[in-house]
Amino acid sequence: MKKVLFIGGTGTISGACAASAAANGFDVTVLNRGRASITMPGVKNITADINDEAAAAGLIKDMDFDVVADFIAFTPEQAERSIRLFSGRTDQYIFISSASVYQKPLSYSVITEGTPLANPYWQYARDKIAIEERLMREYRNNGFPVTIVRPSHTYGDRSIPVCLHGAKGSFQVVKRILDGKAVIVPGDGTTWWTVTHNTDFAKGFIGLMGNPHAIGEAFHITSDESLTWNMIYDIIGRILGKKTVKLHVSTDMLCKFDPGWEGGLSGDKCVSVRFDNSKIKRTVPDFNAVTRFDQGAARTLEHILSHPECQVPDPEFESVCDRIVSAAEHFGI
Prior knowledge:
Distance between the termini: 60 Å
Largest sheet: 7 strands, parallel
Number of domains: 2
Strand order of the largest sheet: 3-2-1-4-5-7-12
CATH architecture of the largest domain: 3-Layer(aba) Sandwich
Radius of gyration: 20 Å
CATH class of the largest domain: Alpha Beta
CATH superfamily of the largest domain: NAD(P)-binding Rossmann-like Domain
Strand content: 15-25%
Helix content: 25-40%
């Protein structure tokens, strides 16, 4: 039985992967700060902050792993920490990067793993690129057994994918649709986007774990389905039994309302992309994303509306949206 350590392990992506790994016979240990845990047969939990390197090293000093999957490395300094902690201790270290690392603006809209990495709009993406480069250098120079995985927009039961939301998640957008209020859609809403259900992502991810053909390689794992943002919002409205009222506002104008939106919009969601998944399908022949967005969104919205803890209000985002709507009405946008 292969032993795997998940660093993180309770998020939208990592939780689905950890649960799938346990269901597929891996001996799973999850290391995180203890704010959440996985309670299922075959999963052990270690409470620690991986950024407290000395404490984490003490807890795992007698452990070796076939696979370490790190979902919470965001800076080059954290990459150095992982190299120190796991060199010689694992047969594979999987770094979860991001599809936002790919070139913006794109020179060709179909993305492969060979698409250049460059994102001048988003520090988050640039830090992920720096981590990738450091880990690959360690692989080339010292044999550090890295595999890089680049998720795109992946969702599960607890949150619905939208283009623009506040700090507390997407529920406030759902509430605006239910209340018949306009939702803000960047640009004209015709940007092509790819959303992937986390159970589909997990199938590809599990197929890379312990896979010798994945060492020293990078993969994105996404659905083959592409939709425009207009389509995504309309599907959400139909599931809710409401007509989605969409207010289209230029990305430049939105970034003036909140400069913090530039990375996620200009550096990611407002760039039309389609993903070529040939590489993950060659390496993991069983992988295929089977959840259409309308199916996955129906499941997600049912879960959100039946679980009050998922209905987190965001009055700050609501206020910003109302100001944008008022400005649009005033200027006749």
